[in-house]
Amino acid sequence: SGGIALSQGGLGAAETAVKVGVGADDQTAVQTALIQAAPGSTVCLGSGTFHFNTELSIDVDGVTLRGAAP
What we know:
Helix content: 10-25%
Distance between the termini: 19 Å
Mean pLDDT: 83
């Protein structure tokens, strides 16, 4: 599976969550979520192990990166 999904459930009215699951290209999926993140949004990483071959970057203020609970 994997990929990116947009959700507003369970967050404040102005908050948006982008959910990213483990997939074939974790690097691209997570970096895309960070690029598309709006100020004040949350990028949620699903459970599992994400594989990256280089660093990730973000140029937006107030973004929260959250991992799934164990």
